[in-house]
Design a protein that fits this description.
The chain is of the alpha+beta class. It has five helices and five strands, in the order E-E-E-H-E-H-E-H-H-H. The chain has helices at about 35-50, 65-70, 85-100, 110-125, 135-150, and strands spanning about 1-10, 10-20, 25-30, 55-60, 75-80. The strands form two sheets. Strands 1-2-3 form a three-stranded antiparallel sheet, with helices on both faces. It has a two-stranded parallel ribbon with strand order 4-5. Helix 1 crosses helix 2. The longest helix is centred in the C-terminal third of the chain and has 19 residues, at about 135-150.
Length: about 150
């Protein structure tokens, strides 16, 4: 899990993001605050929307995550070692690039909708190439492009 600030019409909001171990974006949530209540709200949403509790949570050493994990998922392992959170940090880059191209986001609802759909498209095309052989990689990639063409047309 990770959060990053996003400016929407000059007002600072926080984009909370959860990524699984394969780099797929599990959930995105835009909130106005960055405190223990916001972390709890995001963690509750994450657990209810994905139908199960994770075995391990990887964050950086922000105290709000520890409070939320202790209250909502007390039996889950919480890892805060250096560099463990790199996967979720890197997933923020694509959203930042889209934000620059769009010349900033204009409203909270538009931002939430756009980033959720952007995450779905990213997950469709993110096939973890380093984990499979070339011939096995091409088949799902062609399937992903076929799904994209069906969605666009």
């Amino acid at each position: 899990m990770d959060e990053v600030f996003v400016s929407i019409n000059g007002v600072q909001h926080y984009l909370w993001r959860a990524v699984d171990k394969d780099g797929e974006i599990v959930d995105i949530f835009l909130q106005k605050r960055r405190n223990a209540a916001a972390a709890k709200r995001f963690l509750k949403r994450l657990v209810t929307n994905n139908g199960g509790k994770p075995r391990k949570i990887v964050t950086y050493k922000l105290g709000y995550y520890k409070v939320a994990q202790r209250d909502i998922l007390p039996n889950v392992i919480h890892v805060t070692t250096q560099y463990a959170n790199n996967l979720s940090e890197l997933s923020q880059q694509l959203a930042r690039i889209r934000e620059r191209v769009m010349r900033r986001f204009k409203s909270v609802n538009q931002t939430q909708r756009f980033l959720e759909s952007h995450a779905a498209v990213y997950n469709l095309f993110n096939l973890q190439r380093h984990c499979v052989r070339t011939e096995h990689y091409r088949r799902p990639r062609l399937g992903a492009f076929a799904e994209w063409n069906k969605a666009v047309t």
